[in-house]
Design goal:
Four copies of one chain form a homotetramer. With 169 residues, chain A is of the alpha/beta class. Helices cover 36% and strands 22% of the residues of chain A. Chain A contains five helices and nine strands. In chain A, β5, α4 and β6 form a beta-alpha-beta unit. In chain A, α1 runs parallel beside α2, α1 packs across α5 and α3 crosses α4. Chains in contact: A-B, A-C, A-D, B-C, B-D, C-D. Chains A and D meet through α4 and β7 of A and α4 and β7 of D.
């Protein structure tokens, strides 16, 4: 069974992240993974462009109801009509996830993944703190190559984890 | 842009429907359509088997959270964790839909498609009546070949309809 | 624990149904039930007006994201932003449901209730047919008084059913 | 129209938070607000107990499909069957939200609220950092009394904001 790697990232990311996202997509496709994302522009489009350039499959879970809103590099576009509700759908669709950059939608995907047991790898994204200090909730990669390695390993472990796929209620 | 054809049908259909579903899947794939379904056994598996045998792409929107519950003929499996909530997701993902057989889940997909303006074609499925008599809400095909023709035509019209993709609120 | 009775019905119903819906709401409230509906106009508003006139509690599960879209007779208004996805939420919130009139949204609620085991009572609504003839899937009431009695009894049985509340996946 | 105040918080919170949550619930009810939460134990139960003790109305949006899983202090219990998908429903149901404590579910609710424009007040909860340093995304209250004041003010502003209720797609 294929690995499905989710990529969370903003439609209007900070400069420099698009190149990283494109490399990430290419490496994930080279490893044989299906790339799942929100299907929009920005980080989502760049990661899909990278994956398709390496012959990969990309899935976009769109927030709206019109498939034409998807970016041009989607193999499969699913217009969910769920708004930010598609963020949980992305998490549930992923064997592991990379969070790229600092949007609030991305933060929600990090949190939902941590809450439901889906492994997360960070790339230039949020870090979390409580009063007691920083909380080391997920590994952080220094660049896209490293993020691809970490997330593929995490997804392989997740796929063979007998407790994965547990209802999150 | 590819046509996406939804196929609604039960996991334990009446005898004879599996052969019809497999032919339907093959014809849809030959027409270049992506086949979207609930990803389970029965009609869903048969239509995917047919589509894959013709080189097509199949998408399964699973009710649970475990991708391994999908049938073996899915190109892409999306575990939604939404239970019967994935029925609306199937409708929203479809440019037109074929309803096969007489399950209540299938009936819900017919109703949601009619409610949100997605064209429906029936194949050995429900007919609807009010006090005033039968309601002719969607065309009914006599066999799988005919259902494939009707639904592809309906999806083409839907794709070029400027009002499609309207929010259903 | 209170009984929760769902009422499915159109925003633009056939003439005469509003009076029936108002009587239905009053009788449900007199029986101590919480009335759950889609929160909109038409049948939904009439059933809420009836329930509030008898001191009852009404809950509206709105399709959009703005609470101000709810009708004026809601005790609690929940803007779901789920469009027709709120129809399943209505079913899940109900110990039993009355379907009033002939809209397609109402038909989807009937089908989702039958699919997930929530008892349905019909009032001037759809009847279902397969090739083999009519399918007697739920009881039909002749008027609002009778619908109220039937649905309250069904909800009481459902509440004491040890298998209710099973996941529908 | 009533103010609806969401309260996000864990079922197994850090010691001391339950007392704070109960005070928060009481103050919100005294201000006339409807309290919306996930309907479970822990922070959710404590805030409901406080609100009910002051005669308030409480709404629980349960992750599962069984109403009996709700805590005993709910005026209205809605079993959504959406798992962590109910977190977005909580955000959409709130004119403003208090986040109490440090769970990942709570973090997702903070993120979804920030993403969709619903005001957030923190109480002994997460703080957010990017590489460039701490991000001051929402006000933090020192105690429950202060959180109640801040969130009521924020909800009043939100209710009169002509741009609220915008689709988040």
């Amino acid at each position: 069974m294929s690995l499905y790697i989710g990529v969370a990232g903003a439609s209007r990311p900070a400069p420099g992240l698009l190149e990283q996202a494109e490399v990430l997509g290419r490496r994930l496709a080279e490893a044989g993974a299906v790339v799942v994302c929100g299907g929009g522009p920005g980080v989502m489009e760049a990661v899909c462009r990278g994956a398709r350039s390496a012959g990969g499959t990309t899935v976009g879970l769109l927030p709206g109801v019109d498939r034409r809103d998807g970016n041009p590099y989607l193999s499969v576009a699913v217009p969910t009509g769920m708004g930010q509700g598609r963020n949980l759908l992305l998490v549930r669709s992923s064997d592991a996830m990379v969070a790229v950059g600092g949007g609030f939608g991305t933060l929600s995907e990090i949190a939902l993944a941590l809450r439901t047991g889906v492994p997360v790898v960070g790339l230039a994204t949020w870090s979390l703190h409580l009063d007691s200090g920083p909380v080391d909730a997920f590994p952080v990669a220094g660049d896209a190559e490293s993020a691809a390695h970490l997330v593929i390993d995490a997804a392989r472990s997740f796929q063979t984890d007998p407790t994965r796929g547990e209802p999150d209620v």
